[in-house]
Amino acid sequence: MSSHSFLQVRKLRKSYSDVAGTKPVFHAVNFDIEKGEFVCIIGHSGCGKTTILNILAGIDEATGGDVVMDGREVFGPSLDRGVVFQSHALMPWLTVAKNIAFAVKSRWPNLSDEKVKAHCQKYTDLVRLTGNEQKKPSQLSGGMKQRVGIARAFAIEPKMLLLDEPFGALDALTRGTIQDELLSICAKTQQTVFMITHDVDEAILLSDKIMLMSNGPEARIAEIVVNTLPKTRTRADIHHHPQFYKIRNHLVDFLVNRSKTAQLNFAANSDEITFPPQVMPGLEGDLIALEKAQAPVLKQVK
Predict the structure, then answer these.
(1) Residue among 172, 96, 176 at smallest CA distance from 140
(2) Per-residue CA distances from 220 to 8, 163, 246 (Å)
(3) Alpha helices of 14-141 — where are they, by DSSP H?
(4) Is 21 exposed, middle or buried (0-12, 13-18, 19+ CB in 10 A)?
């Protein structure tokens, strides 16, 4: 974990009451994300995942701690961070093209109408909505609405993309199609992504790293699972890889058996900047090598 990481989160804490003895939703949350990484976060309801995402987006304030992105402290909303919510959050009176154009004009107010149109078309084509530019949200399926939201977020070319379980309400076939498109777009743009999901298979398919949160209150990021599957993975072949079920079983075991007590391991050092361990299920030898490689960096950070 480098002190020069693209995103640095240190001692993040969120409480909703100043009453003495009230426990925070989460506290002492520390993690880094490198530029171009796709990171998923998983945890039970109430652990504060969405609150962390909202703090990264600048639409919520932390009770304590710091968030630094690309060398600058995150303070308030910014077009440097694109957000895709659980619902599509489109303006129902605008067409697909105008919904995307609204974001583009906010980002580049001096851009000519011709250039705005061309820029919007690029991202409309990227999410495979060509031919639907003049339709309003009421004329689109749920999956198509989410594609518009994704196109709008990518169109402002943010430094970081924040996804709050954007496919949770979609049927399995539609979700799979959009997952494939998201993978393709991220591969082309090298986009940095922070995504909330409850679907372990989705996390394994999309992410480079998976952060596991213990249960709230006083939730922590208990560990970070490094995805050791090849970057060229697809939905069709992912389950054939020998590492797939090792990773999947590790994630499920954490959620079912270990998330309730994981935060207790941190109680003694709650005021220190301690990073969650990185694990590679089924690759113990590689894990040892990883820990040795990281040791000097961790020592400097502390």
Answers:
(1) 96
(2) 16, 20, 23
(3) 49-57, 96-107, 113-126
(4) exposed
Question: What is d(CA 146, CA 174) in angstroms, rounded to the nearest whole number?
Answer: 10
* Cα 266 to Cα 12, 17, 28, 179, 219, distances in angstroms: 14, 22, 9, 35, 10
Token digits of residue 190: 């090298």
Residue 112 token pair: 């000519």
Q: What token pair was written down for 51?
A: 């609150």
- Determine the pLDDT at residue 62: 93
Q: What is the pLDDT of residues 207-261, one digit of tens each?
A: 999 999 999 888 999 999 999 998 888 888 888 888 999 999 999 999 999 888 8
Tell me which residue has tokens 């039970």. Answer: 44
Reported pTM: 0.86
Which residue type is seen at 193? V
DSSP label at residue 275: P
DSSP string, 257-271: IITTTGGGGGGGGTT
Sites in the chain below the pLDDT cut of 50: 1, 267-269, 288, 293-294, 296-302
Reduced to 3 states (helix: H, G, I; strand: E, B; else coil), residue 75 is: coil
| Residues near 120 by beta carbon (within 8 Å), at least 6 away in sequence | 97, 100, 101, 104, 151, 155
> Residue 298: what pLDDT?
42
Domains of the chain: 7-80+159-301 (3.40.50.300), 92-157 (no CATH)
Residues in the chain: 302
Q: Give start and end residues of each alpha helix (H) in the chain.
A: 49-57, 96-107, 113-126, 142-155, 172-189, 200-206, 244-253, 284-301
